Amino acid sequence: MQLVITSQNTGTLETWRGVFSEFPGVTFQAALRAETPVDAVLMAGIFAFERYGGRPEFDRAQILENHRGDGWPELVIVPPSRPTVRNSEGEWSVRPEYAEIKPAYYAASRTFQAVTEWNEGHEKPVVTIEINLPLLDMDNPSDESSAQSFRTALAEHTRKSQ
């Protein structure tokens, strides 16, 4: 699996580049979107669902087909967020059994799992994924935790795939 990490914020790209410096198959582009061909783009549901369909799911990432001809890749991957529960005061919070899992790790690990399942059932595999940091709300140069979470999830996925 190849990743193309995109952001127009060079500080954010430097943070992610530092985390992925020794990881093969990861490139970086200072751009609004990938300037090289990719099979799919990863974007948050808040940006994807209205345009491409789908509904929020907590247990798996969704791979949506893009039939809009809007310049984005043919496939849009929407990562899940951690499951939530409403407390007695009516406030939402992450379910206790998921509280220790970092949100970016949960999203990334479920995304890589969904891509593996997609590739097992489709003739045209997803090989190159754009990780569009602004469209994941991860475009913050001081947020090294999200980059580390993605790296951990990718390393685990790579080990399982070998």
Describe this structure in words.
The chain is an alpha/beta fold and 162 residues long. The chain has one domain (2-161). 34% of the residues lie in helices and 20% in strands. It has four helices and eight strands, in the order E-H-E-E-H-E-E-E-E-H-E-H. The strands form two sheets. Strands 2-1-8-3-5-4 form a six-stranded mixed sheet, with helices on both faces. Helix 3 (103-121) runs parallel beside helix 4. The protein is globular and about 50 Å long. The protein starts with a strand and ends with a helix. The mean pLDDT is 95.
Can you describe this structure in just a few lines?
By secondary structure, this protein is of the alpha/beta class.
Radius of gyration, Cα only, in angstroms? 16 Å
* Morphology: globular
For the terminal residues, how far apart are their CA atoms?
12 Å
Largest sheet: 6 strands, mixed
Tally of distinct domains: 1
Number of helices: 4
Strand runs, count:
8
Order of strands in the sheet with most strands: 2-1-8-3-5-4
Portion in helices: 25-40%
Provide the structure class: alpha/beta
Residue windows where pLDDT falls under 50 for at least 5 positions: none
Mean pLDDT: 95
Kindly list the characteristics that best describe this protein.
alpha/beta, about 20% strand, about 160 residues, globular, 6-stranded mixed β-sheet, two-stranded antiparallel ribbon
